[in-house]
Structure prediction request, 75 residues.
Amino acid sequence: GRLKETIASLLRETGAEGDIVIESGNPHAVTAEIAERTGADLLVIGRGEHNGVMGRLRAHAHEMIRSAPCPVLSI
Prediction:
């Protein structure tokens, strides 16, 4: 979909590498499950935006950090 294409474009522009996984559900449960399933070494979450998706994630950041099976970097 369009979101996945946008994220892929951002990865290319920045030279970053990573898997793009888009799933629905409770943010802290979904991120913990994906991190566990993929063997993630680090979970990076953004909390700077107040609107849109990032604004909603901000409200779940504490539980995402607590539930993560790996270190979390909050930016």
Remarks:
- The mean pLDDT is 86.
- DSSP finds three helices and two strands in the chain.
- The longest strand covers residues 43-45.
